[in-house]
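Email to the structure team, subject: STAS domain-containing protein model.

Hi all, the expression group asked for a predicted structure before they design truncation constructs. Nothing fancy, just the tokens so they can compare against earlier work. One-line instruction: predict STAS domain-containing protein, return tokens.
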Amino acid sequence: MKNPQSEEWPLPVLKITRDFTIQDRSLEAEKILVPAASFLDLLDEDSRQKAENLLPKGLPGKGIELNFLGRGEERFAADVHVNWNDEETATLVIVPHAESHRRIAGQFTSLRQRLNETNYDLLLEKMKVDELVKRVRELSAPLIRLDRSRMLIPLFGDLTVEQMAAVQEKVLSDTYASGATKIILDFTAVDLIDNSGLQEFNSLLQSLSLMGTSVTLTGLHPDHARRLNELDVHLGITYASSLQDILQ
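Reply from the structure team: attached below.
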């Protein structure tokens, strides 16, 4: 008889020893039976004694009706056909009763459907969360029109690549739409600037420069100044010690 692990077997197949230890099982058996080291642990209490009495005899040509414990706490009836390969090992072919087999298949189908629905719902929730996070990051850099040519952009929190990516698109589009020629970036409420955020900020400065927009940085802390100095690009940027100096 072929190894029970063969994928050719459409039914659950087990290989057991005289003491009912499971040596091998087919893929189909893994799908519908609970994990167990002993064949007796696959059965409900009423069927265990019956299996102990009848399996060693073999009953050639006849199946032994037993009640199995399926996955998901489902119980099902099946006929077990026994073939003792030698004195120590036997191959068991388990044939679930039609009604039981349909019930198990239905449970798997229902479970798969619920899982797919759950995954879709989780995907929708993730998309909503991602959109909210994007909106929060955009709001961390509000655009304030000072006059016809100047626009103030106060920055808040940490300058990360995610925040700068969200801010950059809005800053560039609003600058172009408003016709502003001078942008003031206020760092007073900025905490940390990470490496990726610094590079994204540099990209924003270069884009504004290409648009012919002058940039003034204000509210810089000593740590901010050290990090911005790493860029080693000026692009016509001017600096002011405070926002008040600019607005006077």
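The longest helix spans residues 98-139. Residues 40 and 48 are 6 Å apart (CA to CA). Ping us if the truncation boundaries need rechecking.
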